[in-house]
TrEMBL record, chain A:
Gene Ontology molecular-function annotations: acyl-CoA dehydrogenase activity; flavin adenine dinucleotide binding
Signal peptide extent: none
Domain Acyl-CoA dehydrogenase/oxidase C-terminal: 173-297
Cofactor(s) recorded in Swiss-Prot or TrEMBL: FAD
InterPro entries: AcylCo_DH-like_C, AcylCo_DH/oxidase_C, AcylCoA_DH/ox_N_sf, AcylCoA_DH/oxidase_NM_dom_sf
Top-level lineage group: Bacteria
Name under which the protein is recorded: Acyl-CoA dehydrogenase
Protein family membership: Belongs to the acyl-CoA dehydrogenase family.
A Pfam family hit: Acyl-CoA_dh_1
Keyword Secreted found: no
Keywords (A to Z) from UniProt: FAD, Flavoprotein, Oxidoreductase
From TrEMBL, chain B:
PANTHER family cross-referenced by the UniProt entry: ACYL-COA DEHYDROGENASE (PTHR43292), ACYL-COA DEHYDROGENASE FADE34 (PTHR43292:SF4)
SUPFAM superfamilies referenced in this protein's UniProt entry, alphabetically: Acyl-CoA dehydrogenase NM domain-like
Protein known as: Acyl-CoA dehydrogenase
GO molecular function, one term: acyl-CoA dehydrogenase activity
Family: Belongs to the acyl-CoA dehydrogenase family.
Domain Acyl-CoA oxidase/dehydrogenase middle: 129-223
Keywords for this protein: FAD, Flavoprotein, Oxidoreductase
Coiled-coil residue windows: none
Pfam families in the record: Acyl-CoA_dh_M, Acyl-CoA_dh_N
Gene3D superfamilies the record matches: Acyl-CoA dehydrogenase/oxidase, N-terminal domain, Butyryl-CoA Dehydrogenase, subunit A, domain 2, Butyryl-CoA Dehydrogenase, subunit A, domain 3
Gene Ontology CC, one term: plasma membrane
Organism whose genome encodes this protein: Qipengyuania oceanensis
Keyword Oxidoreductase attributed: yes
Length: 328, 379
């Protein structure tokens, strides 16, 4: 990483933090999306020739962490990834990713159903399908059933008949999993900060909660889960920038999912009843973490897939394959 | 909030060649290794293997050539350490000397102390132990009562140390003694270099619950040492002893102790595995991968002259929890006859018994999490 990369990321972080903080979970698509479009987040991963920002996946990690940290209820990351996958192709509107689909490509049209599509109701196109067989589908004429995920965000069902479709490189499941792992890292870091602040201020039995060893131990455990999620996300972004990131995607989504589960539980535990209220901000983070944990493949899916690859390669390659991922 | 600072770093170009070198050396000696104890390899001594490592130039990697070192980078050293641990090689004889004692002497020791002891450590021939814990003190290390008093131009040591790993095979101890009568807690402590064959030193074994002999009690009964047995500055012992803790706590030995168990579990599954077993493999490797990233990030920052103390303790506790969970998780995922002589059964049986020690040695879980909490600004 060069100084220019660092400089670019600092600039990105400043911009994203400023904008996301003012919108957060209170985002309304119609009101707030134009600002995102104007700032060019969808073009983050497009080259400058393609009209984009020329960013790397490590740049996207910076934005994804902040989106997670601010519980941003807009498809900034989905659209950045979708836009990259259709670079050079004619698709209009906001792009997003379908975690699962049931349908068929016939020539240059696609018919079938896309499920749990983030902000599907607002999408101009959706990337769907398996790795190696992914397609970009024009969803401007989709029949939409509006649904809501556990975080309260749109997760819609889209039915399509002979919609225009083009094959693309890159699987929406893996890339969706990658951005969710990054968002979890951001949200968990924020939940940790809120928790540390809360226990320092809240007095019980005549002293701050932070002075109780049992509370300290919980916060320490949360910090370690947060650190593990961050490190996994960092390595994932680095691998996406290198080439193949199939190992890192599975590992980061699995590890971040575990961190989300443990971290959300501990954040609520140290907050007591106040954290369980609608009014207190913690749930915007914890409910999202838990939703993201399951989206685009949960721990069961990714750990099984990773385990299958490892067992197929055999015991004698377990270690050497692992270190080969980071060796020059 | 990002408590764990990650700075980009790259593994050294020499990494693949170093790995091959370590793997070849392990292959040469592997037939002699005791199968079960490979699950706790960094406290299992094998002087013959340590000497072989020294001859191959794989010890003292970061030190100046003047003292028998090889002037390699911290990450090159890291590669060698993780290869040895992943291969479950018995590296216990030299581990503490190479990790802590020689770096301590190179930083604080006199020229005479360096020349006398450091080259032997790099050769894999001189081993060391650390005298910190005392009877009754437990985790409260600052309550040191063993004392050192001046007598003319000599020091006279009295007292007792306990839980001293490897004292029975070590040539020297770096011990923490109260050198100022009447001082309390962290003040008035000094570090001494004690050749263990000095008259008045008695080493007695403490046998652990598996029947192994790793720990010892060490008595000091009017042990007379020359003035230059003092390491560093008189009264600065606490600071010196804790300065290198990040090195002790963040290394790969904090999460790779049970790597061979995972390897043998995968070997067992090669003939067929159910979804739950595959998921366990995937989950454990995901955790391993994140821990390795954390540990390497700390190593890279230490190499850059920083002291990421908070990150280091996080590696220790998270790593300990991970390696402790492995034998239990495997036992839940697969039927095992723990009286059998197969590699997996021997390793599971042994590591299940020693696993509790992982979060005791090098600072208990409670102490370590307290340090993390302090890093978060909670205490």
């Amino acid at each position: 990483m060069t100084d220019m990369d660092t400089e670019r990321q600092t600039m990105l972080a400043d911009m994203a933090a400023g904008v996301f903080a003012g919108i957060g979970w209170q985002a309304e698509f119609d009101r707030d999306w134009p600002r995102m479009a104007e700032l060019g987040f969808s073009g983050l991963l497009l080259s400058e020739d393609e009209g984009g920002f020329g960013g790397s996946w490590s740049d996207l990690l910076v934005v994804a962490r902040l989106a997670g940290e601010h519980a941003l209820a807009l498809p900034v990351l989905e659209s950045a990834v979708a836009s990259r996958l259709v670079a050079g192709l004619e698709f209009e509107g906001v792009g997003t990713l379908a975690p699962s689909s049931d349908g068929e490509l016939s020539g240059d049209t696609w018919s079938g159903t896309l499920s749990a599509v983030p902000w599907g109701r607002h999408a101009g196109f959706v990337i769907a399908g398996e790795e190696g067989g992914a397609v970009a589908i024009d969803t401007s004429d989709a029949q939409i059933t509006e649904r809501t995920g556990l975080s309260g965000e749109p997760r819609d069902t889209l039915a399509l008949q002979n919609a225009r479709a083009v094959r693309v490189d890159g699987g929406p499941l893996a890339l969706g999993a990658a951005i969710r792992a990054m968002q979890i890292a951001g949200a968990l870091g924020k939940a940790l900060a809120i928790s540390a602040n809360y226990v320092s201020e809240r007095q019980q039995f005549g002293r701050p909660l932070a002075k109780f060893q049992a509370v300290q131990q919980s916060l320490a455990q949360m910090a370690m889960e947060s650190a593990a999620a961050d490190c996994a996300a960092f390595e994932l972004a680095r691998s996406l920038d290198r080439d193949d990131a199939s190992f890192e995607t599975a590992a980061a989504k699995t590890r971040a999912g575990m961190a989300a589960s443990t971290g959300a539980a501990l954040a609520h535990q140290v907050h007591g009843a106040i954290g369980f209220t609608r009014e207190y901000a913690l749930h915007h983070l914890t409910r999202r973490m838990l939703a993201w944990r399951s989206e685009f493949g949960g721990e069961a899916y990714w750990s099984e897939r990773l385990g299958r690859t490892i067992v197929a390669a055999g015991a004698d390659r377990l270690w050497s394959d692992l270190v080969a991922r980071t060796d020059p | 909030m990002q408590t764990f600072t990650i700075k980009p770093y790259a593994m050294p170009d020499s990494a693949p060649a170093l790995r091959e070198k370590v793997r070849a050396l392990v292959a040469e000696h592997e037939h002699r290794f005791e199968p079960a104890r490979r699950a706790n390899c960094w406290v299992t001594p094998d002087p013959e293997f340590s000497c072989a490592l020294g001859q191959a130039g794989l010890l003292g990697m970061g030190w100046s050539k003047e003292y028998g070192g090889h002037e390699m980078s911290a990450l090159e050293r890291y590669v060698v350490l993780e290869e040895l641990l992943a291969a479950a090689a018995p590296v216990g004889a030299h581990w503490i000397a190479d990790r802590q004692t020689a770096p301590l002497l190179l930083r604080y020791g006199t020229e005479e102390q360096r020349r006398r002891w450091v080259p032997g450590i790099a050769a894999g021939e001189v081993y060391a132990c650390i005298g910190l814990s005392e009877p009754g003190a437990g985790s409260d290390l600052a309550s040191v009562r063993s004392n050192a008093r001046r007598d003319g131009d000599r020091w006279v040591l009295n007292g007792q140390k306990v839980w001293t790993t490897g004292a029975h095979i070590s040539h020297i101890m770096i011990g923490l003694f109260r050198s100022e009568a009447g001082s309390e807690r962290q003040a008035g402590l000094s570090q001494f270099l004690i050749p263990l064959d000095t008259p008045g030193v008695t080493v007695k074994p403490i046998i652990d619950l598996t029947g192994s002999h790793d720990f010892n009690e060490v008595w000091f009964d009017d042990v007379r040492l020359p003035a230059d047995a003092l390491v560093g500055t008189e009264g600065e012992g606490w600071k010196q002893a804790t300065a290198e803790l990040s090195l002790e706590r963040s290394g790969p030995e904090r999460y790779l102790t049970s790597q061979i168990l995972l390897t043998e579990f995968v070997r067992r599954l090669e003939g067929g595995a159910d979804a739950g077993q595959l998921r366990l493999v995937g989950r454990l490797v995901s955790e391993l991968s994140a821990l390795r990233q954390m540990s390497m990030a700390v190593a890279a920052r230490l190499a850059g002259g920083e002291d990421p103390a908070l990150e280091a303790v996080m590696v220790k506790d998270l790593g300990n929890s991970f390696e402790q969970a492995i034998p239990q998780a495997i036992a839940q995922a697969i039927e095992l006859d723990l009286s059998a002589d197969d590699a997996l059964e021997l390793l599971v049986a042994y590591s299940m018994q020693v696993a509790p020690s992982f979060s005791l040695r090098g600072g208990t879980r409670e102490i370590v999490r307290g340090i993390v909490a302090r890093g978060l600004g909670l205490r």
